[in-house]
Amino acid sequence: MTVKAALIQYIRASRKVTVELEQLERVFAGQAVDYEAFADGVLQLERDGVLEPVKAHGRNGKLPALGYQYRIRRQSIREEYVRRLHRYGITLHPLIRVDRYYGMSEEDWERDWPYIGQIDSFLKRSDLPEREAPAPERSFELTGDEKWITEKGGQSLLERLGLWAKLRILPVSDPLMLAVNPAAFRMHAEAGAGRMQKPGEHSPDSEWLDGPEALLPSGRTGHGGEQPGGFPRQPAGNGGQLRLHRHLIVENKTTFQGLIGVLPETAFTTLIYGCGRKIVGNLGMLTLQVPMADGESVLYYFGDIDTEGIRIWHELRQRHRVRLAVPFYTACLEKEPVAGKENQRRKDEATAAFCSELPEGLGRLAAERLSEGYYWPQEILSSAELVTIWRTEPWSVR
User: Fold this and answer.
1) Is the pLDDT of residue 294 over 90?
2) What is the pTM of this model?
3) How far apart are CA 124 and CA 84, in angstroms?
4) CA-CA distances (angstroms) from residue 191 to 180, 182, 211, 266, 297?
5) Which region holds residue 267: left if phi is over 0, alpha if psi is between -120 and 50, else beta?
6) 3-76 — its CATH code?
7) Mean residue pLDDT across the chain
8) DSSP-derived secondary structure for 273-321
9) Phi, psi dihedral angles at 46 (to 5 degrees)
10) Cβ–Cβ contacts within 10 Å for residue 269, how many?
11) 8 Å CB contact between 366 and 355
């Protein structure tokens, strides 16, 4: 922090209308700040109109001379800050926008300025990057600190400056924790070798959606383009048919462990452990970790029926086309709920969306009992019940 910034910080914290020179000097007690640097900071504030010397008290006679007492003109602090922002708006690289800082404090600007200066130098030296780069790599290019973007507030700062999208940064997500159905990979390998099923022919290991009339996760039909939720639409093969890949996301580890043993006996390609709300940030890794180039992915979610579990699904649905695993939720709601969530803050929008996806009577039941402080944990279903539901339900996509 500069001498001037430290003085402004002290003045802001003071409620007095005047300040003594020795009080300003004490701001730097124990610091390696010489008189010349200190005086320069005080005189800058004089020129900016923030500090007005009280003539009756005179000056200290040193070079440069400072007043023994100053009146504080607080309005000038804000005016000077606005003038500084205006100057920076002119001198910084044209892509750097400082507009947001007009509504923020000068301390915010001083905190961010070292990084803004580095970003300005990068853009003036290299302009915008032509290729995408992972966040740690781009972070190191900008500031020399590979953790700045992901761990030290760099993403928020770049968004504030209007640069996040322009710098072509690839967020770094943790890998998904998942189990895969070997039958799905066997059929995938056969498809790649050209040994694909004939249209209309089915086996326990695969399921097809008719090509031109294939139902996408959003309920639309057709081929090409981007699949809802950011998952790439794959070209149809096998006479215009699309292979269907189901993926089940479960919130808790206990449920994951209860189901993993029967995955090969189900119609699902993967079982994904959501690890609470961690899944919201890393579900996009699915197509990189399980690249199935022969069809459609349909995502199902099963979590606790409580505020947090519902919020996780709702946030997932805003990023990806994720369905509720309704058979599991139906089985939970047929059991007596558990008391103990009276203090959870409900997100009414998420709860309403969740209840609307359930059969009408169960949706009303869930809304009523949740509002009373009850909830249904995933563990309310035994391992045997989980397995039976997963293996025997039709899991229709229609």
Assistant:
1) no
2) 0.56
3) 20
4) 18, 14, 16, 20, 16
5) alpha
6) 1.10.10
7) 84
8) E-TTTHHHHHGGGHHHHS--TTEEEEEEEE--BSHHHHHHHHHHHHHS-
9) -65, -50
10) 26
11) yes
Dihedral sign, CA of 349, 352, 357, 362? positive
C-beta separation of 57 from 68 below 8 A: yes
- Name residue 244's amino acid: L
| CA atoms of 95 and 120, how far apart (whole Å) | 9
Alpha-carbon span 385 to 363, nearest angstrom = 21
Written out in words, the top-level CATH class of the domain with range 177-392 is alpha beta
Count Cα atoms within 13 angstroms, Cβ side, for 309.
Answer: 23
**The pLDDT of residue 87:** 94
Residues linked to residue 245 through DSSP beta bridges, in sequence order? 297
Residue type, 196: M
Identify residue 77 by its one-letter amino acid code.
I
| Tokens coding 111 | 């905190």
pLDDT of residue 11 exceeding 70: yes
Domain residue limits, the chain: 3-76, 95-170, 177-392
Distance CA(256)–CA(270), nearest Å, equals: 11
Token pair recorded at residue 126: 């290299």
DSSP string across 91-141: HS-TT---GGGGGS-HHHHHHHHHHHHHHHHHHHHH-S-SS-EEHHHHHHH
How wide is the angle at C-alpha 51 spanned by C-alphas 48 and 53, nearest 5°? Answer: 120
> Running DSSP on this structure, what letter comes out for residue 218?
T
